[in-house]
Amino acid sequence: MIEIFSTVILWATLAAATVGPNSLDSDISLIIHNDLKEDTSSWSESGVLLLDPMPLQKAIESCHSLGESLWSGKFDEIKYDLDYLTFQGKYSDDQKYWIAPVNSAASTINLSGKVQKASANTDLPALCTQTAPYSTSETQDNSSTWQVLVHSNNEYLTGFRDRLSFRFLGIRYAPEAERWTYPQLYEGTGDHVSALDYGSICAQSSTGTEDCFFLNVWTPYLPKSSSQKKESLKPVMFWIHGGAFTSGEGSDPTFDGGNLASRGDVVVVTTNYRLGNLGFLALDDGTTNGNYGVADQITALEWVRRNIQDFGGDPDRVTIFGQSAGAGSVRALLASPKARGLFAGAIMESNLGGLGYGTSYSKYYTIAQEMEVAGNAILNETNCTSASSRVDCLRQIPAYTLTNLEASARYLVVDGEYLQSSELGLTNPETTANVPLLLGTTRDDGAAFISYPSADESIQEFFTENDLPSTEVPSPLFPIPSGANHTLDIFNTSARIATDSIFRCIDQATAYAGSKNKIFPKIFFYEFNRTYQMTGWSPNPPLCQAPVTAAFPNGDPNLEYFKCHSGELFFVFGNVLRMGVEFRDDYDLPFEQYILDSWTGFARQANPTPDMGFLKARGYASTIEVIEGTAAWVPFQDNELKLRRLQWPAETVSLDETPQCRALNLSLDYYMT
User: Fold this and answer.
1) Collapsing DSSP states into helix, strand and coil, what is residue 481?
2) Residue 347 in contact with residue 265, Cβ under 8 Å?
3) pTM of the entire structure?
4) What's the mean pLDDT when you consider all of the chain?
């Protein structure tokens, strides 16, 4: 018998900010059975912290230095945690783990839940309790109790853990740059730096600053610096926010990476990048060449490439993913020679292109063209047209004046360095990153990009007002419904054409050419037919929301409604409850679980059908049920044009709207000629 609690008081009073994998000489893994129900879940007590093999006394001290104790609880709560460690090959199925002493005796537990005595001098992995609280979209406890220290990029970064993951917020990836110059990768100075709160967002409208080069990391695993074993590092998912290249930030609570990191066992990174006139202005002066926001994204990826292993991420398994303008950014990074080798997979959610408003997101202006559509107007608005140095004149203008100009340089341009061609190269594999690709749309993506017709408006007038092609309306391909609500009938047809012309057709053509010309080794295509419109952005309300009925007070997603732009985001990040909304029916939760598992499955294995062994080890029963009931995703191939319709249950179907796309001159072979 040994005295096992002699150091409890001493270690419990240590400042948690001094504790990290290096000081403990141990990796730290945070494992929890996350069913996305947060603190209402029967699994909310299932979390543990796993430490490397060590003697019992050191295990006790290490747990207490983290503000925790050796685990004691119900085996059923951690069964899947131990199963997953075995599945990973981290430990064998007969491994014993230190737990809290039973009847004052040194005690262990194994995979079957058997508690046994052991010699206190034996080196065994330790299971610590994990009592950090859940964070919410509005509050998070980053007090010293939960803080953790990581050495990275020649800095000592203090982050913290919540119930689901380790969180490092507001990490600088580049020093503040002079306006309209390209960023430089930030090098730490050996200091202790707080990563407890988000950094400033990039200037937009009348908020944010120009010193905004910050990224955020959520991770389930922190390795000690001497043990960065390749096989232990996690896939990385690098998120690029949307917002028309004029707004948005990596700290948007919609994109909180805790659930994605925890349930998916991945490292999540979100980032800021310069926006609007401060991020994309190009002038015909030979030096102000635009694409500064894209350069920011690439610099953040370079930071990830150099440093993410310190946060448990594998720099060789980075998947870039983004939605709307974020998907447009992913598309640009696929084309950019400057980004080559910085990522291993790509996800484009609702990439714009094709006709009207969407054109410039996939087809890039020359600098001369950008001057015509934005640059000259900006110079005129700021009275910088005749200045000896127009860019120096613009540098004297206050940032918020520039972000609120009527003219907006929100366009990607062919600058010759970051982008060398007017569009993504889909005929020559050498011009495009050769990585697996997942892409798709929501069913009615375009419904959010048009207004609602007035009662006395004809469909031709409405199409002109919304910059939609009207030559095919009405027609057998685009009929106008004959319902009782005339304006809704017009909106139905208009939303269909807006979706086809701005989203669906160009993305289908991208997948087709990418497959036919072997640009990407794997392609998977999807369409969301179950969505949850964002609470802060719901155009033409309530059309993008499931109809409210007496039986479904939060909306009935099984009835017809428009599946609009951004409606997949809560599901992808697993943040339905975190964003303060309620599940609408019995299927929203398993659907959310399935979507998150599919996205992280793609990051893990270049396939959105998750590995069945992974799912079983983690106890993800609902996703197992979907796959067993609806089969796996089918890769998109030029001889098998299939998409995954994401609804409950999911199904594999043939491509939609191909005749309609042909009529709009956006056929499948758009990029083939």
Assistant:
1) coil
2) no
3) 0.96
4) 94
